[in-house]
Amino acid sequence: MRNYLLVLLTLVITSLVSGQELNCTVTVIAQQTGNDNNVVFQTLERQLTEFINNTKWTDKTYRPQERIDCSMVINVSAYDNDVFAATLQVQASRPVYNSSYSTPIYNYNDRDFDFQYLEFQNLVYNPIQFESNLISVLAFHVYMILASDADTFQLNGGDDYYRQAQTIVNYSQQGNASGWKLEDGLQSRFAVIDNILSPTFKEYRSVMYNYHINGLDIMSDNPREGKSKIGESLLELEQIHSRRPNSFLMRVFFDAKAEEVMDIFKGGPSTNITKITDLLDRIAPMHSTKWRQIKI
Questions:
Q1: Nearest CA to 151 among 137, 138, 165?
Q2: Measuring CA to CA, which residue among 113, 233, 260 is closest to residue 178?
Q3: CA geometry: angle at 207 spanning 192 and 295, to 5°?
Q4: CB count, 10 Å around CB of 286?
Q5: Domain end call among 197, 232, 258
Q6: pLDDT (tens digit, 9 = 90+) per residue, 31-71?
């Protein structure tokens, strides 16, 4: 009987552990404060790591090998008691089918990340209620990661997660912190989720799906076909550019993908890339040095 209970307990613990969705590395950098040895930064890093990785963000069950690899780097520039001024760099990737390569799916530099934090405070996420700017910003990016990942496996597969990110934006406006409102500019959390869910930018999600499923995921079996499909998917971005030139969403896409696109098209089997290079120069001129490395 005792052995049976031990086995049952092991199964329950394994189920709880494997149910979480993210494998997130959190790093807190505080060199700009001049007091980066303060233990509060170490505690913050440890607590946020546990909070993100141990919170159940969805109703799905993820096996350990299915957890999404991601990172969050918090750069604290100043703090006074429990008030912190910081920026946040968020990155996430997903594995490419039948290879050891992981492809970046989300890369966001959040410059509006001021928050309050007391050492050892209880960190709890409420899906329908504002708790703090610290919790809201982290939860917003968690759902952006989940949505971006889901969109690469199923067309518009991230709908529920994007809607939850939008819900977080809506209820976090009461906190009066930057990044949550229309008036906070075209490069805010409000702007990025508003753009993604807008028909004006509908091709963005189609590109995320086709680029990965019909392009990257077949490259190990058919490199030429995979490269061609990636090129076809990128051409869809021209429609977004024609409606909204120099959009923030285009920058978000290429912040994650520019290096990879360059590597794909500067090597491997030859394909007709004239249209691709012309398009890249027009829609992502901030990465022109990379595009110049692509040889026709």
A1: 165
A2: 113
A3: 110
A4: 12
A5: 197
A6: 999 998 899 999 999 999 999 999 999 999 888 888 999 99
Question: pLDDT tens digits, residue range 238-249?
Answer: 999 999 999 999
User: What residues form DSSP beta bridges with 20?
Assistant: none
Tell how far CA 106 is from the center of its chain.
3
| Residue 204 maps to a domain | no
72 and 150 inside one domain: yes
Q: What are phi and psi of 226, to 5 degrees?
A: -60, -45
225 and 180 within one domain:
no
Within this chain, do residues 178 and 252 fall inside the same structural domain, yes or no?
no
pLDDT tens-place string over residues 7-17: 334 334 444 44
Structural domain count of the chain: 2
Identify whether residues 192 and 277 lie together within a single domain.
no
Crossing angle of helices 248-266 and 223-235, in 10° steps, is: 150
Distance CA 192, CA 107 (A): 12
Residues 122 and 250 in one domain: no
Which residues 6+ apart lie within 8 Å of 165 measured at CB? 140, 143, 144, 147, 193
**Which residue range forms the structural domain that includes residue 46?**
17-197
